[in-house]
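Treating backbone geometry as a discrete language has practical consequences that deserve illustration. Part of our work consisted of pairing the sequence of a single chain with a tokenised description of its backbone. What the numbers capture is local backbone geometry rather than side-chain detail. For completeness, the protein is quoted in full, as a sequence line and a line of structure tokens:
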Amino acid sequence: MVILLNSVSRKRLAIGAGAALCLIYVLLAGRLFVASVFAEKPELASLQRAARLDAGNADYRNHLGRYYALVARDPGAAIEPYRAAVQLNPHSARYWFDLASAYQVLGDTSNQTWALEHAIQADPTTPDVAWEAANFYLVQGDNARALREFRVVLENEPSLADLAIRLCWRINPDVDMLLRDVVPAKSAAYIAFLNLLMTKQETAATAKVWAALMATSQTFELRQVYDYLQYLLNHKDVDQARLAWQQAAPRFGLSAYLPTRNNLIVNGDFSLDVLNGGFDWQYQKQQSVTLTLDPSDFHGGHRSLLINFDGPGVTDAGIRQFIAVQPTTHYQFSAYYKNGEIEGAGGPHFTIQDGYTQAVLYDSDELKEAGFWKSATGEFTTGDNCKLLVVHVRRLPEGSPIRGKLWVADFRLVAKRQ
């Protein structure tokens, strides 16, 4: 349809209509602008004006309710603007939470629960929403709903996993129920659960969480494996420690660090990097001792461990390895060594001890006077309860001054067939 403006009156009418529309738009825009200015002022009168000027703005109604609830300390007065906000925008979980908070202060449990359920419906998977909902239900004593929301947190927010797991355990310290109904199949959640159980000394329960963790293909830090293995060894659960290392090593590309029937000592020739964890060599800085992997002098592999002694107070070289073994079993040990000029009374020894009783099962002769590679060998039988050995380089007599260099390599331990 074409409107012909072929007369002065029609032109004036069109111009007038356009001007009126522009004026209306300017007035509306100005009204909204003035409302936004008032909304920026944290004063009751200004917030009320903003809500009147822009009656369809849910945010202004919610701000007004928050003023009544938090500044005026009048939760009853906050109910009406809060309810107006959720009616204007029922999809905002924050508005529903604010309304639930006001009902909570008023002791209106029924309406609090109603508002809280609407908050969850508005945003069911956001961890912040689930966290607040879980804590609301926890305060109410509704543990089932609290656990349901903590699961949402654990599924979506790894940074809250530790605290969420602690609260879940406080609600119901049942590892089977939590694994089944609450803890999702996420590595962050399982690691948080594992760490909690270790602090609680719940050793049997840690095995269940570890099994669940291994059933996933999700990544996690190798440090967690080291921490768990050390916890198990500290609590004399050698069988679980052995199993955990067998399961974890391939996942981290560390299959070469698994013991074999031909050698229970891992990385015995030092051809691999020293992990300082798991069932590989572990080291700790000792006074007057320096440890170095030496590629210039070796025996069977392509590197050796160079131990440099230089001073008093030496009791141990600071390098050791834990070895899972069987009780009442006969073992054969061998290793190679070479030294430079070693000065001082006595000397270093290869020593194998029970990892828990510290009983010495094998102690080599002094590792001295060997300017060429020389072997040290021996046999021993583990005791009735012996399941863990530690092999290290011990200094005897302890504490006396010693200077010189000692190269060690090609450690080997095997069970002797009867």
Remarks:
- DSSP finds 14 helices and ten strands in the chain.
